[in-house]
Design a protein that fits this description.
heterodimer, A: mainly beta, seven-stranded mixed sheet, 0% helix, B: six-stranded mixed sheet, four-stranded antiparallel sheet, 12 strands
Chain lengths: 113, 116
Amino acid sequence: NAGVTQTPKFQVLKTGQSMTLQCAQDMNHNSMYWYRQDPGMGLRLIYYSASEGTTDKGEVPNGYNVSRLNKREFSLRLESAAPSQTSVYFCASTTSGASYEQYFGPGTRLTVT
Amino acid sequence: AQSVTQPDIHITVSEGASLELRCNYSYGATPYLFWYVQSPGQGLQLLLKYFSGDTLVQGIKGFEAEFKRSQSSFNLRKPSVHWSDAAEYFCAVGSYSGGGADGLTFGKGTHLIIQP
């Protein structure tokens, strides 16, 4: 049981390049999330998918798109990377019910030059 | 919209001393509250959570937190810290709608330094 996995772990992009961050969970969770973490800012929600087939914007969605590929996988795409998107990106998942505890992946450190 | 305030950006505590990290939240309904810990270069680990019931909740690694509705607070405590407790601590509040869990709103974190 790997929990939440993210690929890649590190990435360097040039301004204007595109890339997709991958996230998968093997806990049969319904809901999945993408956060970004910047120094002194805590974690901020980018997009989430409360259930398979649905996606919604979070606090900071501009410049990103997401795809809930199936129940296990939730990807985050940067179409045209900007230096302001330099950050650490975390994927998380949770199941519906009384708990709502979110399980986090190890993160992807992205640098845009 | 919900919000979380962690008033202390840095806290320095001597090893063996007690610890209290402050968290205040703003949320329109009964909150779902969490404390997470992050060691350098690592992901987030859940320390404890509150949904309902007993307002004093116990977590892992000897941590506890007390929910005080009248003060909109959810402070984290530990009676005796260890050097391995040095990390970043995040308080978070959960938002939920009819569709399910909408996501967590995090505070900006408190960086805990342990002095020998």
